[in-house]
Amino acid sequence: MSNSSSITQFLLLAFADTRELQLLHFWLFLGIYLAALLGNGLIITTIACDHHLHTPMYFFILNLSVLDLGSISTTVPKATTNSLWDTRAISYEGCASQVFLFLFFISAEYSLLTVMSYDRYVAICKPLHYGTLLGSRACVHMAAAAWGAGFLTALLHTANTFSLPLCQGNAVDQFFSEIPQILKLSCSDVALREVGLLVVGVFLSFGCFIFIVVSYVQIFRSVLRIPSEQRRHKAFSTCLPHLAVVSLFISTGMFAYLKPSSVSSPSLDIVVSFLYSVVPPSLNPFIYSLRNQQLKNAVWKLILG
Fold it and tell me: Is 2 helix (H, G, I), strand (E, B) or coil?
């Protein structure tokens, strides 16, 4: 029987057994990663450089792009290099760091999406109080709270997970270090501590979800009362990108963690984890830029000089 003190590395799940498919995965992941870097990088640079975009909504979008860059950079580069060099190994410290950073960025992003729903609520339902409720100091405090919540969540889960003795080897059935897969390597009795933390995390996540739903119920009620069709369309346009990002983030995450164990398999787990860990950070920049003419114009202005 092994324990965590004797493990120096973990073995991640390989995408394929043949060299040709490994190289195919390498080029696919590299292309996705470069697209995510380009999209999020352009949004960050554009918002930072264009003073017309120094508003609360774009401040939160900038933070979202930073978090997206962080989350995809935590998982994809290691998976890409493993496919290129035909290896599955990740060091114990590297695995712990990957767990911490991914959970940090994902938790902070969910908190930030909750804050952004409040931003849209105030902008549409209380426009006369927007400048008061969402001044620069308030925006910084809310963004800092989202980042802080992510850090605290990641610290608690990572410290608790890697303090458990590992009794079932070192093979992780995932292409990156993920807490549910690491728990499978631990003794079932002591893993109850982490299950308790996960339950608390689920309740907090559900609270954020309810807040987002209630915010959008109020938003849609206010929008439908607007007499002007043009103003209704403009109001919906400012909400749809955020609603699309929230839907993509929550639906992929819920499917990954709430799917029945009876339908679980290594290949399905990889596909599902790909959907919630790689797809949202890659698509978010395009979701926001496609529906936002002001952001699109600023991006083109930056590109064309």
Answer: coil
Are 174 and 147 a contacting pair, CB within 8 Å? no
Q: What is the pLDDT of residues 255-267, one digit of tens each?
A: 766 666 666 666 7
DSSP 171: B
The number of residues in the chain equals: 305
Query: 9-11 and 89-91 as β-strands: parallel, antiparallel, unpaired?
Result: antiparallel
d(CA 210, CA 50): 34
Amino acid (one-letter) located at 197: L
pTM exceeds 0.85? yes
Half-sphere exposure (Cβ direction) of 119: Cα atoms closer than 13 Å? 25
Contacts of 99 (CB under 8 A, 6+ apart): 154, 157, 158, 161, 162, 177, 178, 179, 182
Amino acid at 48: A
**Bridge-partner residues for 9, per DSSP?**
91
Closest CA to 182 of 161, 163, 202, 199: 161
The CA radius of gyration of the chain, in Å to the nearest whole number, is 21
Closest C-alpha to 74, from 106, 43, 42, 44: 106
Q: Cα 186 vs. chain centroid, distance in angstroms?
A: 26
